[in-house]
Amino acid sequence: MHTCSYCDSEFKYKSDLNRHQKTAKFCLSIQETNKNNVIEKRLFECTFCSKELSSKSRLTYHLNICKNNPDNSKKKTNNIQKINQQIQEMSKKIETLHNPVQNITINNTLNNTLNNTLNNTLNQTNHNYGSILSLSKDVIKETFDKNYTLEDFFGSQKALADFTNKYFLRGKDNPLYLCTDKSRQKFVYTDEQQQETEDVNAAIMIKLMTKGIDKMKQLYDEETIILEKRLKQFLHSNDNTNIIETRQQIKILDDTYKQLLTIFKNGDKYRIQLSKILPSTVESRIKMDDQDLKLFSNDDKKIETELEKLYKKGGKNEEDDDEQESNDERLFEPKYDKTARHIGGITYGGLRIYKDHYVKTGKKVYHPKHIGYPEFMKKFDEFCENDE
Description:
Layout: E1 2-3, E2 10-11, H1 14-23, H2 25-34, E3 44-45, E4 52-53, H3 56-63, H4 70-95, H5 100-126, H6 137-147, H7 150-154, H8 156-168, E5 177-181, E6 186-190, E7 196-198, H9 203-209, H10 213-236, H11 240-261, H12 268-277, H13 282-293, H14 298-312, H15 321-330, H16 348-361, H17 374-385
Antiparallel strand pairs: 1-2, 3-4, 5-6, 6-7
Helix pairs in contact: 4-5, 8-12, 10-11
């Protein structure tokens, strides 16, 4: 195990530790005040709203959608002026037509369409919806490094679509990307001028997600080493049953990796799943995001804050250090249920904190990464009910 020298968090691989020390906000904040007793700024702060970001690339993306950024307000005003101008120009053209009845019908239809476009633009701006074209390689790579798990990997293209939606297309600060026709899989995004553009066969989105291939390769390489080592042991002991099973696991691993690598040529499973889970209108997207914000009550937020503080300390309580030491030792005993090790990218140690809270209080609090994902919440429910 590799332990962070700043916050005592533990990691199985040194690469995960290095990434943690460069990207984890709470660890970066500790580093600011603990490096040679000299304050060194490690987080990147927005000059307009004071929000702190973990990397320069994330700050750059945030500046393009920050509500307090006057440049963004100008973009909003310009968009509204352009649409109003379009309405006026088209109205003048309609007035030149000779058929009064036809004029009224066309005029009403046109005004309704343009007004809907205006409302959509306003809604998008109020919810900070940007363009997928603003997603930089660094932001995508960092998101994959922090959140993409072995469970996501084995879910192949379908799980990649879920990952895309969860980490890049949900929430008020993420880009607008819709599937306006689910039967024909018509994907639409807004360009940097807030104009709707079709992403044929989700080609642009797929290209963006392939920037996370390094993380996929890392997981593939790590799991290959584990399985080959296991196979070698079984071959040495002539354990035919486990030899067959391990070889099958290696084949599944290879096939999954190949399917992810060939997503450009054959990304049908990715597109089908994406079309199912994406909203079809801006209004649907806004409704989804507003519902996400209401999932936590005020009490749950307080509990969540306390749980996060405890997790940052490595699970140690100042009041019962001795008892916690004993608990920490028990975490590695074989009798513990390890099935929850990678629920939604949360490690076993992190999940134990949430389960301990449930055991002590009877109140269940889900990790933020599980909210809105029934399969993860169900697995966590089962984990909480399992006797250890």
